Amino acid sequence: GAEGSTLMSYFSKNQIKALKPKITFSTLRDLQCPVLQSNDLQGKPEESCSTEELFEWLGAVLNQVSLDNKSSSFLSTYCCPEPNTVVEKAFLCTITGFIIPEKIIQLLEQLCCYFGEPKLAYWLTLTVHGFADSPVSWRESEHGFHKGGENLYNFVIFRNLDYWLQMAVGAHDDCPP
């Protein structure tokens, strides 16, 4: 109708272009990583870490929080959960922008190719999060911003292609079934 054509002329006049997602790469050296077993979600003392411990660790790594538990640090005294192992090199890729589900599936497929030769990684993760103040969430509920605006999910994929799916939403949001 008329509204649609008015909008189109507005957009063409103002030359609004689709923004390309911004991609940044970084290499983390000598990174302490939790030891995980794909069939053990709860973790076992001295054998593997739990899903909750991994999720907390991942938050620290993605926010570039130091993992060395220094008492002089005013920011964090967090340390990597036990048991852990030191990885000489870990690659962190961040893609910022509006990303459709089909692209996320493509990313997952490409990440799984990383388990081919040479088999360097035991597991990898893909975290997808919406903006904290996004108006929508899963299912039919509006996204409640309230305190933190949590709105994310995380795949942990193992070399044998088992995977974990972790989800975090705010207290007033619906979670997918």
The average pLDDT value, as a whole number, equals 79
The topology string of helices and strands comes to HEHEHEEE
What structural class do the secondary elements suggest? alpha+beta
Poorly predicted regions are none
* Number of separate domains: 2
What is the helix content?
10-25%
What gyration radius follows from the Cα positions, in whole Å?
Answer: 20 Å
Residue share in β-strands:
25-35%
- Sum up the overall morphology in one term: globular
Widest beta sheet: strand line-up: 3-4-5
Largest sheet: 3 strands, antiparallel
Q: Count helical runs.
A: 3
The total strand number stands at 5
What is the CA–CA distance across the termini? 38 Å
Layout of helices and strands:
Elements (H helix, E strand, L loop, with lengths): L1 H12 L8 E13 L16 H12 L21 E13 L4 H13 L9 E7 L21 E8 L4 E7 L8
Antiparallel strand pairs: 1-2, 3-4, 4-5
Describe, in plain words, how this protein is organized in 3D.
The protein contains 3 helices and 5 strands, in the order H-E-H-E-H-E-E-E. The chain is an alpha+beta fold. Strand 4 and strand 5 form a beta hairpin. It is globular.
Summarize the structure in short.
The chain is an alpha+beta fold. It is built from three helices and five strands; from the N terminus they run αβαβαβββ. The longest helix is centred in the middle third of the chain and has 13 residues, at 101-113.
